[in-house]
């Protein structure tokens, strides 16, 4: 692997694609979702990069929290122990012995390692059966659990919220079920992935949680200068679209971010360069340049809003519209002062940005000179 894609430690299975990590792509990508999700507190995000201290549990919760899938857990997979039986699809953590999970159980390193998109995919696969995350009563004592809330509760809350919004009745929502096992049966550590032996539906179910491809040897999957759609956001939207279509509803506007132009955009295009997913792009239109926003691709990271020198953009994570929209329209003109071509707004004084700033500076200087002579 090259310098962009690498393991954070030689003794840990956690892999980082630096080109996909928001804080490492630019100083405007202020994200600490992985560190916030780490139950062991051994992951740290700084300007120097991601640092992994001793004690990584291999639970995969940081990878599930990462909005761009910059983190992946080597060997992670969603594994079905047997052909899925009729009735409920049950999700168990790797610590639970296979002999205890029963037929059709889907096994993951930790129940908290499921993202909302993965959970929605599994809900669709379950079909008419229920989707149950099985709580064995071990989480409070588990090094990857702990805390007041179950590690899967936040993911469940998000998935249940959007399923309700597209018309799924309460009794069909995924749920957490309590089926305790004796504490003495709980292993101290999460078993290594080589102990998992998928024997059926392996390729299909494992593909749901396959890590982001690493590209060719020496070539990162997501170089820092590139932009790509968030796989997790697309996963959620694809699942919700299909579920809504089956029920004659639609994905609500609340699912889509809202980005507005305050009217001060001058076509710096820093926002399009900084956007990690390509939600912002400049396209030729009507003999000009249109700044277009695609809410389907936006992950509401806020980098564009923070990067804009003119503070032209205002972001709301929810309540937008699904359709692409033009935020600003600019047309090429010749500066009346210097003659250079520049991109102009609809309402414009005929000066390029440099000449406009120069004129303001001269006016300010003249004002100070006159004030000093009084």
Q: State the end-to-end distance.
A: 69 Å
CA-atom Rg in angstroms: 25 Å
Side by side, the strands of the main sheet go: 6-8-7-9-10
What would the principal axes of the Cα set say about the shape?
A: elongated
Stretches where pLDDT is under 50 for at least 5 consecutive residues are: 80-84, 194-220
Mean pLDDT: 83
Question: What class, by secondary structure content?
Answer: alpha+beta
Kindly estimate the percentage of residues that lie in beta strands according to DSSP: 15-25%
Alpha plus pi helix count: 11
- Helical content band: 25-40%
Order of helices and strands: EEHHEEHEEEHEHEHEHHEHEEHEEEH
**How many β-strand stretches?**
16
**How does the major sheet shape up?**
5 strands, mixed
Question: What key attributes describe this structure?
Answer:
alpha+beta; five-stranded mixed sheet; four-stranded antiparallel sheet
Summarize this structure briefly.
With 374 residues, this protein is an alpha+beta fold.
Report on the architecture of this protein.
Among the domains are: 79-207, no CATH class; 253-353, 2-Layer Sandwich (Alpha-Beta Plaits), CATH 3.30.70. With 374 residues, the chain is of the alpha+beta class. The protein is elongated and about 90 Å long. Helix 5 packs across helix 6 and helix 5 (116-126) packs parallel to helix 8. Strand 9 (131-135), helix 6 and strand 10 form a beta-alpha-beta unit. Helix content is 26%, strand content 19%.
């Amino acid at each position: 692997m090259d310098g962009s894609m690498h393991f954070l430690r030689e003794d840990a299975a956690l892999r980082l694609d630096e080109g996909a990590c928001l804080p490492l792509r630019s100083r405007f990508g202020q994200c600490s979702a992985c560190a916030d999700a780490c139950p062991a507190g051994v992951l740290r995000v700084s300007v120097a990069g991601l640092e992994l201290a001793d004690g990584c549990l291999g639970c995969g919760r940081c990878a599930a929290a990462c909005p761009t899938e910059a983190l992946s857990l080597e060997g992670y997979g969603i594994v079905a122990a047997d052909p899925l039986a009729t009735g409920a699809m049950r999700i168990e953590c790797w610590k639970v012995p296979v002999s205890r999970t029963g037929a059709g159980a889907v096994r993951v390193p930790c129940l908290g390692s499921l993202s909302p998109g993965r959970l929605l995919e599994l809900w669709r696969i379950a079909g008419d059966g229920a989707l149950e995350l099985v709580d064995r009563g071990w989480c409070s004592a588990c090094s990857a659990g702990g805390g007041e809330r179950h590690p899967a509760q936040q993911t469940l809350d998000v998935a249940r919220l959007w399923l309700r919004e597209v018309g799924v009745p309460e009794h069909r929502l995924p749920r957490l079920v309590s089926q305790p096992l004796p504490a003495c049966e709980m292993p101290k550590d999460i078993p290594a992935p080589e102990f998992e032996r998928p024997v059926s539906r392996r390729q299909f179910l494992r593909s749901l949680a396959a890590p982001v491809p690493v590209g060719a040897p020496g070539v990162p999957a997501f170089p820092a200068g590139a932009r790509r759609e968030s796989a997790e956001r697309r996963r959620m939207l694809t699942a919700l679209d299909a579920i809504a279509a089956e029920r004659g509803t639609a994905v609500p506007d609340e699912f889509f971010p809202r980005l507005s132009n305050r009217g001060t955009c001058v076509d710096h295009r820093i926002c399009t360069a900084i956007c990690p997913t390509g939600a912002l792009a400049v396209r030729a239109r009507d003999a000009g340049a249109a700044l277009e926003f695609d809410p389907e691709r936006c992950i509401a990271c806020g980098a564009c809003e923070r990067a804009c020198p003119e503070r032209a953009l205002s972001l709301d994570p929810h309540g937008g519209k699904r359709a692409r929209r033009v935020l600003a329209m600019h047309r090429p003109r010749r500066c009346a002062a210097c003659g250079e071509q520049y991109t102009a707004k609809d309402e414009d004084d005929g000066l390029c940005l440099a000449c406009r700033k120069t004129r303001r500076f001269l006016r300010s200087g003249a004002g100070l000179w006159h004030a000093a002579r009084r």
